[in-house]
What does this fold into?
Amino acid sequence: MSKELVKLAREAINSHFENKKISEEKYKKFNQKKGVFVTLKTLDDELRGCIGRIESDHLGKALVDSALNAAFNDYRFSPLEKNEKFKIEVSILTKPENIDIHEEKDLNKIKIGRDGLIIDFNGNVGLLLPVVAVEYKLDAKGFIEHTCLKAGLDKNAWRDKNCKINKFEVEVFKE
It folds into this structure.
């Protein structure tokens, strides 16, 4: 399945350049209810786009949509150009699990390199994939603070008892 998911993401992006819509036949067999993120990187491993869904009713459709959005609608980057070289990573998410972390003594509930985080507070939501903590050499406190910042919150918002914190794991497939 791994190679097929990455191939499907690339095919979705290439179809866009040809002004074609990818056929439902290409993705309908991936009908699991799973979250997915598509990450695009330059050949030098610099982030070029990353968009996905925490949960979906159809993995294949969510993958195609996420690939197109990562390539053309990630507000942090200009849209991908036709001849641009890039690599694709597909991250399939496990179901998010609520964790009660509001004090530093609870930070051991986060396993760096395994867990991704979702912060949901006052309508602001931020998600960081597990690889972010590894790439930026963050400890659990730094990781949860950066997830708060990604949500547009103060870095210490996680300490508020009304802040909802979830963790998840991913299976990553790369080109």
Observations:
- The mean pLDDT is 96.
